[in-house]
Hints:
- With 777 residues, the protein is an alpha+beta fold.
- The chain has five domains: 11-17 and 71-215, no CATH class; 227-398, Beta-Lactamase; 403-440, no CATH class; 459-557, no CATH class; 563-762, Alpha-Beta Plaits (2-Layer Sandwich).
- 40% of the residues lie in helices and 20% in strands.
- The strands form five sheets. Strands 16, 17, 18, 19, 20, 21, 22, 23 and 24 form a nine-stranded mixed beta sheet that branches. A five-stranded antiparallel beta sheet has the order 3-2-8-5-4. It has a five-stranded antiparallel beta sheet with strand order 10-9-13-12-11.
- A hairpin with a 2-residue loop joins strand 2 (84-89) and strand 3 (92-96).
- It comes from Soonwooa buanensis.
- This is GAF domain-containing protein.
- InterPro entries: GAF-like_dom_sf (IPR029016).
Amino acid sequence: MTFNQPFDSPFQITFTFKTLIDEIKSLAEVDKLYAERHEYILNELEKNPNLGLALSDRLLSENDYFYKQLLSELFPPLLTNNEIKAVGIPFANFIYNPTKRFQKIIENAGEEFYLQISGFTAEQFYVLSCCVILESYFGTPVKIDFPFIYDIPNKDGYLNHYRILTNADFIEIKTTETSKILTQEEIEELVDNFDNIDLWKEKFPPSSWELTGFGIVSMYDATSEIAVSNLKSQLIQAKDDYRNIKSDITNIFRSIFRLSDLEIGYTAINYKENKFEITPINTVIESKILSTIPKQFLSDKVHEALLQNAKDQRRYFSISDIDKVELQKTDAFIVSTFKNLGIKSAIFAPLYKDGKLLGIMELTSSRKALNSINANKMDSVIIYLEDTINQLYENLENHVVALIQQEYTAIHPSVYWKFHDEAMKHINIANEHVDKSPYKSIIFDKLIPFYGQSDVKNSSNERNKAIVKDIKTNLDILNNLLATLTSSEDLQPIFDKLTSKKNELKFGLKANTESEIQSFLQEEIYPTLNRLKFESLSNNEEITTYFKQLEKNSPVIYHYRKQFDDSISMINKELSNLLDKRQDEQQKRFPFYYERFKTDGVEHNFYMGASIAPWLSFDNVYLKNLRLWQLRVMTESEIKFRELTKKLPMKLDITSLILVYSAPISIRFRMDEKRFDVDGSYNARYEMIKKRIDKSLIKNTTERLVQTGKLSVVFSQETEKYDYLKFIKILQNEGHLEDNIEIVDIEDLQGIAGLQAIRVGINYDPTPMQYEFYPEI
């Protein structure tokens, strides 16, 4: 059958429904009802066995009814007006048996319309076809995720954009007499040369591989898709505070590249001196390149290549294997820095705005996973990165603290007014002048601090246990796999090393255990498996099955650790959302400064006092009600967590702690760190207590203060104890706290003595919490 392929291809295409026919026959043999439903198809196949052979135009035309009946299970008639689907061949402009909705879209496009994937050159089509072979036949995880889109005009005169999804379950890729079986070195060379079409055609000559079977092409209308718009919003806005800009961008790129260890950095370029430089933006996103660079930075080979590529070619520069880059005898700072940081691969993306080179965005990984192929994923986001960095520069140039805070730090509404007032003193709109005189310090005096934490119990130990279980599982599977493989080489040394690695796990997890296991797998185990898979079909099948168990783009099994990470993420999200919602409601009583932090759990700081809202009358009743409110929200967090445990992938517990501190303190906005901190050496005692109490013990015992199922309230004054006993009594009467109350002495901490605590059990009855205000408390 002839296919209208717009470009050269490494494939010979054999269009056939044989795989589907074989599947139907197989099911009919074991399922009588299934056979009865497909009686027509089975009878026709028995009368004419040629129906299962390679299809010609004539055979397809003469047996059109049969083939459409054959496809009826994959194309339900009831969905034909809803789904946009057809039989198709990858990288060939061919469709068969389109749904009615698909057919209508083509008809509305006009007689002269030619169905063609948009935005791809002939060279890109060829390389992508080769990448399909690399992944399906050679097992190279290139993970091509380029968007395939049809731009189709409609009868209203504008283009609709349809995202294409291809189901390749019924496609097989086979070798031919002209196929070249590549070595690992040849594959690595291709991975580093995505744009070298001559090299790809040398390794995959035209029509040297056979693509047999058929695909199912599905589409959905992506014209109004807002994913890119949302991405832009995430990149240019700081949702919590400026410190989270880096983490927001990092999470986006981890999702795009499917690499859990991907990190980002940013390095500015000094055009005049032709070198990299540190700028104020590095207080937000630090530079990987200049993280340990000496003061007198001398150029090296990689530095020169990177600068030249950024300025002249304006394309991505990638290093897929840092370990293979030879260090120069002198001044090889970039490579040696990356090696010291444990970086194995990197992509550098030059950022431009209005023709000006702003700097270089750095993507790095501790795995050999970034290369010239997946660097092209940057295409969809580069413009928004450029807008973000450019906006950062513009705001830094203005020197208006309030505007910087608004863009990059979540200045809480309770204190925003003071930043606004200070900025207004420096701005003269009439002559577009900005006063360069120093900004006054932003200080709030005589505030009562609040601190609380909902902490995942023994999180470090649970994380380490998950890592060990994943490693042990991985090694056990490999041991069993190697034992089943046919081998022409002696595998005993490999078995011995596997046994040795498993024995090491009995002594616990060391700092370098995980990286050593990954290196062992990548450098010794996987090269061996790649050799053995060519020795027999059974080897190939067993090894392929093993690699499918691995996390995408990861050399190891990531099952138990993923359960742990997902559980922590769910806990943090639920408890943070609850705390954010409740504090927003409570702000309506009297404003207070609020901040929270996600760790292995959630911590929060509140500060209340007259200086937060000097235009209002402050009374201690607001303070007492906020303490009662904090007790409520911590109790509700415990109840929320107990409900959440039913959904957690891994069973975890939390402990809850409140610190009561009645001595007024001051907080000052640190201009260098762009955040609030307690002011003065005396006030630093409060910070010391916060850092130490969660690990504290009951005096003269080995028992930890914080316990699962109990809320601990730490205090140092008798008046604080009596106040909180009243608050606890209110929650006991409401049925949210148990009757069992303990008052315990806390062991002396370093530089801190005389602390006590109230511990009370939590009633996990999910009765809604009523956040009432008590004027006479």
